[in-house]
Amino acid sequence: MGSTSARLLALLGLLQSRPDWPGAELAARLGVTDRTVRNDVARLRELGYPVDAVRGPGGRYRLGAGARLPPLLLDDAEAVAVAVGLRAATGTAGFEEAGQSALTKLEQVLPDRLRRQVSALRTASTSGPANTGPYTEEPEVDPEELTALAAAIRDHQGLRCFYRGQPLELEPHHLVAWQQRWFLVARDPASGTWAPYRVDWLRLRTPGGRRFTPVDFPGDLTTFVVQEVARTGWAFHARVVVEATAQEVLGRINPAVGTVQPLPDGRCVLVTGGDSAQVVAVWIGLLGLDFHVTEPPELVEQFRVLAARYARAAPAG
């Protein structure tokens, strides 16, 4: 391989690409001798990169955890993918500033050819709004709180928290992102029940809870979150009697948006929710089926408003 500096960068990139490397394989990849690999590892250490070595025939090497972040060596596709992902993050509530800062730093160090690719992709494409609900603000999540939750999950550390103002103690299990929201799947140690908790409704207390022995979750995490949120996890909930069979309604909805309960007379009850009465009213109207709503009062009023608005929009005659 060419210059020493180019070889050092190539060696650093290999060490970052996987946890452990035999010295002989590194030498073969770089086209040098085992002795040159040892010398280059010593140079990386002098530059502040902690490379751990295991002595023996040929030796083995791995990049250890250091006090500073080494430069990430990405190939072309990886660099463009990271830039696109960071641009998407700038539209996520709570991550706008950090995402934009990281994207700016990345674009500054991209080679010119990759910077042009990222720029072309940015100018030639547009993302639609992540939240299409009317007049609904995106919930903002504190990145530090997500980090604290992830650490508690990793360390099997119990949580003491307030959830919508109510004190709780939980055993955190997993974080799930769905529809621009973060949910913590956790177990109540007192009752043994599982539930998804919206992270933007949760406030951690210090000190935290006690360490716990994790219990396997009984099922698929994503399916559980989607179904439970449809049943209990919205800010606004409603029960709507639909003039159709349960099977017909199920054929028109995504299971994520509600549950359907059959009635003895052939009709059914749709249990659903959303971030506001307006969102629920608009969505139910899209079913294309007759229905009746008697509660909650906010939803009844919202239908009256929509009915009057649509009546004014229709031509007379």
UniProtKB/TrEMBL annotation:
GO molecular function, one term: DNA-binding transcription factor activity
Keyword Transcription: yes
Start and end residues of each stretch annotated as Disordered: 121-140
Pfam families in UniProt: HTH_11 (PF08279), WCX (PF25583), WYL (PF13280)
Domain of life according to the entry: Bacteria
Keyword annotations: DNA-binding, Transcription, Transcription regulation
Keyword Metal-binding assigned: no
Family matches, as InterPro entries: CBASS_pafABC_assoc_protein (IPR051534), DeoR_HTH (IPR001034), HTH_11 (IPR013196), Tscrpt_reg_HTH_DeoR_CS (IPR018356), WCX_dom (IPR057727), WH-like_DNA-bd_sf (IPR036388), WH_DNA-bd_sf (IPR036390), WYL_dom (IPR026881)
Biased composition (Polar residues): 121-134
Every HTH deoR-type domain range: 4-69
Cross-referenced SUPFAM superfamilies: Winged helix' DNA-binding domain
This protein's name: Predicted DNA-binding transcriptional regulator YafY, contains an HTH and WYL domains
